Amino acid sequence: MSKGGPMTRHVTEKNNFAFLAVALILLLFGLALSQEFGIVLGQIAVETALIAALAAGVWSMRGDHRWHTTRLSLLAAVLLLFAVRLWVTHAGLDLVWLGFVIVYLVLTTWSAMRLVLFSGPVDWNKIIGSFCIYLLLGIVWATLYMMLAAYRPGAFNGLPASSLHETFPNLLYFSFITLTTVGYGDITPISPLASFLAFMEAIIGQFYLTVLVASLVGSALSNRQK
């Protein structure tokens, strides 16, 4: 019994990013399916799916003890505000909730970067982790766009006229199109702050890919020399 426990924990931590990748892909794919088949997801459904992905982030990187408690506290705050907003409708609460979500996502992205870029040899878990970081960057900016759209309606041109949470899949689409610098132009930033966020996302997306390749290649060469 005692021998099986450590082994199980080792396997879970070794493949931790696989669980996070599945959660993020299911979040993005689920939102895409809802739009494809005309399923109107309300505020509760969208936020529940997002919280589930956040919880997967806490669970998958629990081995990072330095930041685990902080991420767990932020997740608890997100859940508490989610419950409060079911009973109290106020634009200020929406912005506060989105602020906590952004802080959590940024911290999770940074923790993942520390594990992928700055520690240990290259393996499949790290490659999947680098993919998770890329997805997290897109979701971080989509949440920032959502916060800006809540604060200043009309900051983006091309968003459908619907509730903020129903436009979240469109903001995710715009975020990843900007992150990859494809830029189809069907959704465009109008306000100066929206434009700033868009070009910063494009710059950081390209910078991340450069750092990622350099880190993985450097780590692989270092392991060969040993």
CATH class: Mainly Alpha
Shape: globular
Give the helix/strand class: mainly alpha
Question: Separation of termini?
Answer: 36 Å
Write down the secondary-structure element order.
HHHHHHEHEH
The fraction of residues in strands falls at under 5%
Radius of gyration in whole Å, from Cα?
Answer: 19 Å
Unreliable stretches (pLDDT < 50, length at least 5) are: 1-12
Helix count equals 8
Question: What's the total count of β strands?
Answer: 2
The CATH architecture: Orthogonal Bundle
Tally of structural domains: 1
Q: Helical content, roughly?
A: over 70%
Biggest beta-sheet profile: 2 strands, antiparallel
Here the CATH topology equals: Helix Hairpins
Query: Largest beta sheet: what is the strand line-up?
Result: 1-2
- Mean pLDDT, as a whole number? 80
Please describe what this structure looks like.
Helix 4 (65-87) packs antiparallel against helix 5 (91-117). Mean pLDDT is 80; it is low at 1-12. With 226 residues, this protein is an all-alpha fold. The chain starts with a helix and ends with a helix. The protein has a single domain (4-225), classed as Helix Hairpins. It has helices at residues 4-14, 16-36, 43-60, 65-87, 91-117, 124-151, 168-179, 192-225, and strands spanning 156-157, 188-189. A two-stranded antiparallel sheet has the order 1-2. The chain is built from eight helices and two strands, in the order H-H-H-H-H-H-E-H-E-H. The protein is globular, with a radius of gyration of 19 Å.
